Amino acid sequence: MRAMSIAQHLPAPLHRLAVQTVYGALNVLRPMPLPATGATLSLNACFHTERLDDDAVFATLLAWCRDFRAITGVGAWLCVMTPEGSMIRDRLARSGFEAERYGERVRALADVAEIGYHGHYVTADGQPAAGGRFTIEAAQDQIRAEISWLRELDLAPQIYTGGWWVVSPELLTALAAEGIRLDCSTRGQQSGTFGDRYPGAIPGVGERFELVPPVVEIASLPYFAMPWARYRRLVASGIPDLGDRPQWAVLPLHDYSLVGIPRDDLDIVRQLSRLPYVRWVTASEAIYPNAPEWRADAVVTPG
Ligand SMILES: [Zn+2]
Fold it and tell me: In CATH terms, is domain 36-287 a member of 3.20.20.70?
């Protein structure tokens, strides 16, 4: 690790090269194990989409989603915040960015990606509604208004991911009533940003399960903007038992994290695509994996 601490003092390109070299060497020594024959690892990227009013973020995300679809054959999952939530509404009001224009950007992204909902709820005094401050009473109206706003764009969001990784049975019940069927807010045994624990004992990353039927849970891996050699190790340690059963996970990232970094994130997508057991799935394939109309290689739901 001494090499890594020295590397931190190098200029950015040299630092990046040093990190890739060290992790590349480690990866040769301890490669990610292949699963038993017949197993599948079903994946998609899941964006916490928060800065669509930023021209560079929007343009970069749109280009990224086109490239992602060309590589994987499916649309990335973009869970978006909307002007019906106070955080976006207040920011648009300050900058003069019109909600209609924000909606046009969501529509443009819907042509190349799957649009879901990213919920950030704040208390009356503007504090994150997390860490014991979350109440469904305070969030309920916002959930309805935001999903209605997306429906008015002719979208029917099925995917959800929680701001600050907040999720609770009451929240999932409210989301299910608005048509959400897939939640990517859990992270195995990790807590939310403010230390919230998920209800009861939940399965580890890699499992597909339900906390509140009919909402399917697919857990998030770590944020994926990093060199492949390093991320590969995180996938291998995050899903330790690929075993002989189907496994499921999402690769999360914030939209604004795409700006100003080299395109290693797409390298990760390309590298994962080369693994024989990886398949990229639509939200409907994740929610209804046994439906006969999906691909011939559709897998069986873990029992
Ligand atoms: Zn967020």
Answer: no
